[in-house]
Amino acid sequence: MPSQPHGPARLVKKITLSALLLALSGCAGQMAYRDAQNLIEKDQVEAGLFKLQEAMRREPGNAEYRSAYLNTRDRMLLRYLDLADSQMEEGKLDLAQQNIERALAVSPQNERARGSLRKLDMVERHGKLLLAASVLIEQREYDQAKQKLNQVLAERPQHERARDMLRDIAEKNPPAPAETGLSKAYKQPITIEFREAPIKQVFEVISRRSGLNFIFDKDVKTDTRTSIFLKNSTVESAIYYLLMTNQLEQQVMDGNTILIYPNIAPKLKEYQEMVIKTFYLANAEAKTIGNTLKTILKSRDVVIDEKLNLVIVRDNAEAIRLAEKLVAAQDIAEPEVMLDVEILEVKRTRLMDLGIDWPAKAVFSPINSKSGTDSFNLRDFDNLNRDRIGINGSLPVTLKANKNDGDSNLLANPRIRVRNKEKAKVMIGDKLPVITSTISSGVGGFNTDSVSFVDVGVTLNAEPIIYLNNEVAIRVSLEVSNLVNTVITKNGTTAYQIGSRQASTLLQLKDGETQVLAGLLNNEERSSASKVPGLGDFPLLGRLFGASHDDTQKTEIVLSITPHLLRNVQRPEAGISEFTAGTEASFRRKPDLSSRPPAQLPAPAAAQQAPQQAPPVAGAVPQTVAMPPPAVSNMPLSNTQPGPATSVAQPPLPSLSLPPPPEAQPTPQNPPPQPQ
């Protein structure tokens, strides 16, 4: 039988093979990591990222490889997505989509990349809407163009191109009627004259002229008589004045049908449609906007979400229209200013030490007594001479000739960006600890220490107020403090003596104007002298018998401040800052007068005396109509009222005056007969 290998030998073989494979794997991972680093340095980030993934597969537990992979991936994602955002702003949507797809290929679950993809879809949709709006503007279909632009602004309120196009529409076309679906019928010209006619009959004539359908609520008194005289007006104006003078309201039911109902609270609640509008605020505070809407529009259904900074309003369409303008007037960016501040502390020191410093005292004593002891008696003084008198210590004589000059500058140049009417503070220095001890008396008393900190250095407080004329008022407060001395109390507590210089002012500067505040001076002059009495008082000789010490310190603080306007108050457009808001009882708008036909000149007196069948006066501007409506001059006012009479005393009957179309103009020799 063939011999089987021993167990230990087989185990050693397996361990050796495993170690060899592990070593080869580690070498492969290290080589992949080095290749990745080289590729990343050559700006081949994608290839380097794949190499890092390979290194991680070779060595799954290597933290260095994983950290390098995550950092490289995040940098690449940031690069692709930032580039995609800039390309979307420039309109390069294809390139932006490619970069977003690259980012998703690296990290499919990245939320920002998914958001960029949704943003790209929105930008494409907005581009189509803007293109359609441009075509509609060229076709003078302003109402439909505004609907397209409002769809864009509903998703991106700060879309510059859409806002510019809306501004152009507002300049080219005045405000349209409230019901855009009826705008064409509303703009039709009309001349209508009724005196004491039933209101139902007046609406019937308007219906024939405009093609509109009118439905009356059961509580409308259709036999109410009214008088109206309109020349060279529009259908919208006629309906507006009829409703206003008869306490009626309207509700558009469809493209050519209007419901007429009484203007009373129960009917308004029943027929008036309500609109819910959500205002997402970019700059203004939701609480402020909500209070404005409640105060001016008297809106009761207003919800404020301070967390999301939005306001939800439920009201009628006219109130929502006014709310949009109020929000646009208030939701503007806050003005900002950059304060360029320079703080300079100039300190000059002059020190002079000159003269001879003599000892202040000298002690003479006998050297020793005859007995050899340190004690003396009176007999010992009989033999005193210069050999037996000694001097205790030494007699130091110091020659001083010293002069020190020192200049030091403390410069701080902070640049602070501040919003309008907001406070800014800059502190450059140290915080000194101040320990306060509290001792509790009584049995079991205890001692408690608390630490507070005092600012020492340069402290600047500024509060700007920005005006519309590009001027900035700045409330400035400057404090410069320094540590003068340290004091130790009896209890061992350390206290500090702090020197302080303060200046506060309110100044008003133009944009870019520099103001220098100086004059915070501190002069200290100290002089001391040590001299021999009498001899040291001589003018020149006294320098040999004395020394003087002169110390002069001068400190000056200079503050320079320059405001640079970054953004001033943005004035809203004229249509937002001033607009009509209806009456005290209603937000109903006046009709659009831009489509009113030109007024006709009155006929000369001779032409007024001519028969009714006379042709139109030369120079009169006839109304442009597609088809003249049926004559209603002989229409009875009601079922019981007879037709027009020939008596002069009879009041004029209701009539709808329309000139004939241009192709039907008669000649003066053969005037057309009056329709019966």
Describe the structure.
- By secondary structure, the protein is an alpha+beta fold.
- The protein is built from 15 helices and 20 strands.
- The strands form 6 sheets. Strands 9, 12, 13, 18 and 19 form a 5-stranded antiparallel sheet that branches. A 4-stranded antiparallel sheet has the order 14-15-16-17, with no helix packed on it.
- A hairpin with a 4-residue loop joins β15 and β16.
- α1 packs antiparallel against α2.
- It is elongated.
Quick summary:
32% of the residues lie in helices and 32% in strands. By secondary structure, the chain is of the alpha+beta class.
Question: What are the main properties of this structure?
Answer:
alpha+beta, disordered C terminus, 676 residues, elongated, Phage tail protein beta-alpha-beta fold, Serine Threonine Protein Phosphatase 5, Tetratricopeptide repeat, single chain, 4 domains
Q: How would the blueprint of this fold be written?
A:
Layout: H1 7-41, H2 45-58, H3 63-90, H4 93-106, H5 111-138, H6 142-155, H7 160-172, H8 183-186, E1 189-198, H9 199-210, E2 213-216, E3 225-234, H10 235-245, E4 248-254, E5 257-262, H11 265-271, E6 274-280, H12 286-296, E7 301-305, E8 310-316, H13 317-330, E9 336-357, E10 363-366, E11 389-392, E12 398-412, E13 415-419, E14 424-439, E15 447-466, E16 471-488, E17 494-510, E18 515-531, E19 546-567, H14 574-577, H15 605-608, E20 655-656
Parallel strand pairs: 2-5
Antiparallel strand pairs: 1-3, 1-20, 4-5, 6-8, 7-8, 9-12, 9-13, 9-19, 10-11, 14-15, 15-16, 16-17, 18-19
Helix pairs in contact: 1-2, 2-3, 3-4, 3-5, 4-5, 5-6, 6-7, 9-10
